[in-house]
Amino acid sequence: MRPAPIALTCGEPAGIGPELAAKAWAELGAALPFFLIGDPAHLPARTPVVEISDPSEALRAVAKGLPVLPHPFDGPAEPGVPQPAHARGVIDVIAHAVDLVQAGEASAVCTGPINKKALKDGADFAYPGHTEYLAALAGVDRVVMMLACDQLKVVPATIHIPVAEVPAALTRALLYDTFRITHEALIRDFGVESPRIAVAGLNPHAGEGGSIGHEELDTLVPVVEALKAEGMGLLGPLSADTMFHAAARSRYDAAVAMYHDQALIPIKTLDFSGGVNVTLGLPFIRTSPDHGTAFDLAGQGRADATSLIEALKMADRMAHARAAAAG
């Protein structure tokens, strides 16, 4: 039985989200039912739109046009120019999508890109970004970001902090949570029965026995050994410069890196356009394209929809895997 359709949030109306939604429908059609939550007036003029009143209607509507669950916004949308009046609508659309997925009316949430400054300026948005807001809506304390493509799944243990602050942020508690959430997600959402997780060292050569830093010996190794004793399949800490080539990637299902660029450089090198952002640790599936609002491209029809299309495909695969795991 096919899972419920995927809820796609509109994101920032002045960005490339509306045209990407239209391109995704044109590419996927009825093969992967999803519906957009947003204002139909923000879509490109020639987009075939079918307004729906209930997510279940998307399964039939998708063959005729892009199914849209209407959410009217205040004020017009001008490509490339964010409007403060739109901020509340963007936030409310995200909350609506979460309500639907938690009620079982959607199988996953795929989020269009937002502009955090626009949300803060227009609605005093109190969260650093999408992920933190979703975690608050879901009532969870710790979530993990995964970047995924066909060649690699990688999790940064720390994300948007200065490199100088990374060593102090890499606590044992953080690492335990990161490894456990990644392990559980690989089983539940990606159908990996016995996950193998590669662990990158923080320092060059993974510290080389303490001669190039002690973080591995003091923090990483004790956590890795404790979790291995519990039966978790962890490899490392490994030297990060030798763990992302093809032969090395074949030995693990996902990698955990210690900081933002250590994780994102390899995946953006392998698949710059097709990478997908996945939030692990939520009680529901959430994916998003791995790019921003691109105001400089908005309204020109030139934006690349590959990442959004892959995000929708990954959400669909995860929904099927989760349904199979639940029996």
UniProtKB/TrEMBL annotation:
Chain's gene name: pdxA
Extra remark beyond the main annotation: The active site is located at the dimer interface.
Predominant localisation class: cytoplasm
Gene Ontology MF terms in the entry: 4-hydroxythreonine-4-phosphate dehydrogenase activity; cobalt ion binding; magnesium ion binding; NAD binding; zinc ion binding
Record-given protein name: 4-hydroxythreonine-4-phosphate dehydrogenase
Residues binding substrate: 130-131, 268, 277, 286
Catalytic activity reported: 4-(phosphooxy)-L-threonine + NAD(+) = 3-amino-2-oxopropyl phosphate + CO2 + NADH
Subcellular location: Cytoplasm
Pfam annotation, one family: PdxA
Organism placement in taxonomy: Bacteria, Pseudomonadati, Pseudomonadota, Alphaproteobacteria, Rhodobacterales
Enzyme Commission no: 1.1.1.262
Pathway participation: Cofactor biosynthesis; pyridoxine 5'-phosphate biosynthesis; pyridoxine 5'-phosphate from D-erythrose 4-phosphate: step 4/5
Protein family membership: Belongs to the PdxA family.
Biological role stated in the UniProt entry: Catalyzes the NAD(P)-dependent oxidation of 4-(phosphooxy)-L-threonine (HTP) into 2-amino-3-oxo-4-(phosphooxy)butyric acid which spontaneously decarboxylates to form 3-amino-2-oxopropyl phosphate (AHAP).
Metal-binding recorded as keyword: yes
InterPro entries: PdxA, PdxA_fam
Note on how the cofactor is bound: Binds 1 divalent metal cation per subunit. Can use ions such as Zn(2+), Mg(2+) or Co(2+).
GO BP: pyridoxal phosphate biosynthetic process; pyridoxine biosynthetic process
Keyword NAD: yes
Residue numbers binding a divalent metal cation: 160, 205, 260
Cofactor(s) this protein requires: Zn(2+); Mg(2+); Co(2+)
Subunit structure: Homodimer.
